[in-house]
Amino acid sequence: MTAWDNDPVEAFQQGIQEFAQEFVGNPLYRRQFPKDPKIIHDPVWGTIKLEPWEITLLDLPLFQRLRQIRQTSLVSYVFPGCNHTRFEHTLGVMQQAQRLIDAVNAQHPSDKPRFESKTIRNLRLAAIFHDCGHSCFSHISEELYRSCSDMRAFFDANSIQCNPHEAFGALILTSGPVKDFIKEIEKQYDIELNAESAADWIAGKPTESGGMKAHYETQVINGPFDADKLDYIFRDAHYSGIPVGLDLDRLWASCKVETHNGDKVLTLHQASVAPLEQILFSKINLFAIVYQHPKVRAAERMFQAIIECAKKNPSQFNFTISGRQLDLNRATDYLWLTDETFFAEALGRQKDDPFHMRLHDIRYRRLFVRALTISNDTVDGACGDGYMQLRKLNQREPSTYEAKRELAAEILKTAGLENKIGVEQVWVDLPPDPSFSEADRTFVRTASDSLRKVSDLFPVHYWTELFQKHKWRGHVFCPQEYQQKIHEAALEVFKEQFGVKFKKSAGEASHVLKPKSTA
Amino acid sequence: MRMPMTAEDIIVGIFYHLRQADCEKVTADREILHRAFFKAKVDFPQVMKMFSFRQRELFPESVQLDQALSNLDATGLISRQNVTPRYYRFEQPLTTSYKRFSEKILDKAGIAEEDIRRVANEIQRLTSSNPQ
Question: How far is CA B21 from CA B16, B36, B127, in A?
């Protein structure tokens, strides 16, 4: 009997240890400790300087594997330049964290910096580790392992509130093998590192002393305008070819630590809120144009279809990494996967093998097509009550996932295609809203020296509501050759199940040959 | 297909009962709403189990609550009026949505109507002390 059979929480913890042991603790992969600092040239930020201890960490397989994980999942199949990886992003976050720290320290006397050298080192440590918990295709796999029973049990048992990849990052950083390696680094370079603090910052928890919470430290890594957000917005926009304009100099120049209800928080001056608005507007644009592009969503569902099969039939798949046969019903086993190892599964298969074809359908861009577009523009306005029941399935819950899969099965059955294709070829895709809570988390210093939320001064949420009403699109996806039949069946099923009627535009927007209407 | 219960059904139930008590609107101030729902979860953990909260700098935030309000707004069950929208107004489809779907879904999930009414009273108390 394994720990997995007994106790999912124990199995989860054991899974973290095993991963950390292989990717950090394995002496086979160790290199000599470098003596000199290094300069790396980054296409987005230019020169990035790294200390020898940082290079030692970045050379570990734990971080080198991030070169094999694309930052923006399968976006590159639509925006071909978007091939940047989590590794580049990690370096960018270190750079942006340092700029934020320098900007805050510039507001203080040089002999009394707000961020002392020890804290700066630990913040850079957090920046290095902040995304090490990502698996293949970044956030799409996160959507899958977040519902694994071992992760859910661990989250429940420990009342964890952060995102799953953040939890992974924090747990890896505080695992035995990593702590042991950090001890070696401390000895080698005569420095002190605090893995616990860095892990707290990754998970969004502030450090506390004397009843005062130091939010400003956490906010460098996990805050409303943190280094992570600044890098990914710039980097994703740069590589997707969707230019954004962010006046970061103005943001830095106004950034200061203030006290709010006894806690220390990062603040901006009222006259410098524009860069934050630019960040939010750019984020809305990236979601509308890039991340939620229908073809991107279609490719992601194809990936999900393969993982779904691998979970149901583990024996039919061979995701073996470093001799470990992965079980994708375990959240921690996803850590071993990268984009490369995912696609490599096809290598050992014959070319007429169905899974070889499915993997290569993604790789060679034979993507699903839209059979129906679900939006405020395509749904008949008179059926709001039923439409809400359909749309609520965009909540991230195992039960809503199951409901969408049941709907897909119903559509397939109604289309009379059960003998032609499997249910994994039909998807009801209802993207969740992006979070735009930054305006409620950023404090602004007003002319009267009081602190207020950005949202008190400018109703940013109005933008997000407009996004939801006018930009949000759900879809039904399927293979090209069954588009017409699935289109007609989906119309029927949604009318039957929810009383939702669609206009002809639901098919027209999906380029269906003979679009129908139920309105 | 078995319709799952989500945060939307709980909120539709709460707003329906507020409407039954002659309340036509609720504040749209995000901080007040999230604080109120957080408090309601503390007091009524079973009814509010669909909501999880993350404590950030200022107040506890729930992604399920944000998503549900957005879905209700986008589908016309509630609405914000004017260019400075300070409250959500309950619209007619809210009632039909409750009667047609959410009432049965909540019942099947074992959530009593009386419990939803009590949560609605709590939400009203917590949000009306901050009139918009």
Answer: 9, 18, 15
